[in-house]
Every structure is written in structure tokens, then in C-alpha cells.
Amino acid sequence: MTPHNAEQQPVHHTPVLLAEVLDALEIVSAGAYIDCTVGEGGHTEAILGAVPGCRVLGLDRDPSALATARIRLAPFGDSVRLANVSYALMVEEAKVHRFYPADGVLMDLGISSLQLAEKGRGFSFQRDDPLDMRFGPEGETLAEDVVNHYSERALIRVLQEYGEEPRARRISNAIVRKRPLRSTGELAKVIEEALGRRGRIHPATRTFQAIRIEVNQEMRTLETGLAAAIEVLKPGGKLVVISYHSLEDREVKVTMRDSPVLRVITKKPIPTSQEEVRVNPRSRSARMRVSERLDGGL
Ligand SMILES: C[S@@+](CC[C@H](N)C(=O)[O-])C[C@H]1O[C@@H](n2cnc3c(N)ncnc32)[C@H](O)[C@@H]1O
Q: Of the chain's two ends, which shows fewer C-beta atoms within 10 Å, N or C?
């Protein structure tokens, strides 16, 4: 079922940097593309619609996102394959579905508007949900484990490292004093009480991001995923990555720069335009980097 926002309007995820992604992939007819984070299928739909004859393999860790994508992409028939696996496993998956080697790989990292709005997932501080935050049901660690069972020191590290939260100590101390915490609402309230509220950004924003990254081991997965993407590409194939915070962007930048089999196309990351941010405020932190796979290896 489509999630609804507080005003009971259905929520859809708007694909970010869409025109830029299509440009960067340089899609060719009969080309094989891997959308590592198919989500609601926005980018994949546009890729398939842009050039007749191309094919897309869409991956997502989240079965619920994939179910939505499956309905949306049904009109494309056999041109699209969907699989409920982590992009860390894309090499095996590409071989199974005959997408190896691929003409392009897209990674649109982070979380979708749909997931943020979905009841029971625990991604949003604007809902009162159980502390879950896993992208898929196979994940073993829940946000609840991080919040209620990590030592104060470990919590500080998570908030500093993955949230770049300057007030990590104060927040972690408040959490430890108030736990056990049972819901996202309780967590958001503890943070708000510890920090007070200034400005438009909710004080729990960075903490929620940090816990989500820890729960899903997103940085380690990104490292594995980037290596897999490089392996799967054919010479001349494009790697396009959209990241949403500086930690991810740094990992993408360094991996592209240091890979002996990639040529970096975007010397600077491509941001969203003012117009895109106006229409879709959530896209404001997006940064896109593009590289081309060089000869050799395959
Ligand atoms: C920003 S959304 C993608 C939105 C999509 N591009 C669209 O246009 O609808 C990111 C997606 O990546 C998925 N995801 C996160 N980690 C993943 C992983 N390791 N492997 C595959 N998918 C992952 C999330 O479940 C989420 O659906």
C-alpha cells in the first residue's frame, strides 16, 4: 500500500538529478544497465523510456520498495529484471541475469521518500514507530539495539562518524540516561530536550541518519558495492553515483580517483539545481559523480 504523509496525501519518491543521470549514462540501444538502488523505480523508468531497446537490472534491499517498482515497471516487460538483493552482490546477480559486463551502473544512495513515510519502518523522527531502521528484513541489527545496548562511547562514535554531529556527547549522554527508549518518538524527544530547538532543521536529523547508517552498515556496503560496480562495467561503461552526505561523497570521490581502471568524468561533484531543490527540497544535499571504465581487466 502506498504510504501517506501527515495530511493523508500519498507519498511518491521523485528521482533526483534525473536529466543529469540520463546524460551521464550515455544510454545506447541494446545497452545493459544496472540500477543498484531501484527504489520506487523512478530512474529505471526514465532509462528504459529514454532509449528503446536498452535493458535494466534493478536491485534493492527493501522488498517493499521492490514491490512498488515491480508494478510501475511492468509495462517494460522483459526489458527489466528486478532482484531483492544488496548491490554488494551485484556481480553474481549481473551474471545470473546476463547483465555482465554492463554498459552503466547507477547508485542512488540513501533513503527514499517512500521509506521515510512508511509506517513501522522507524526512519523518520516525525512518526512514532518502533526503533527498526533496517532497509530489509534480513538485517540483524535494529536501531533499538544501537540506542539501548551500545555503550555511551560507541554511541558517540556512531553519531560523530556517521552523523558528523558536533553535539554527539551531549546527545549520547541523554540517551544513556533515559534508556530504554521504545520508539522513534521517544528518541526524537530525548534529543530535542537535550539540545533545544533552533532553526528549521530538527535537532534529531543527524542522529537518525547516523543510526540508520550503523544499522545497515552503509559505509562498508558502499565500499564493497563500488568495487563490485567497477568489476561489472565493460570498458567505456559509466559509473554514476548520487550521494547525500559528505561521508558517502568522500568515499565515492576517493574510490573513483584512486581506481586504476576508472577515468573520472566529473572533476567536481554535480549538485542539484536551484529549480530542482525548489520543487523537491529533499534533493538539496545530493551530489553526483561520474566515471568511465577504462580498458583492461575484462
Ligand atoms: C534514494 S532511494 C532510490 C530511489 C530510486 N532511484 C527512485 O528513483 O525511485 C535508495 C534506495 O536504495 C536502497 N538501498 C539501500 N541500501 C541498499 C543496498 N545495499 N543494496 C540495494 N539497495 C539498497 C533503499 O532501500 C532505497 O530504496
A: N
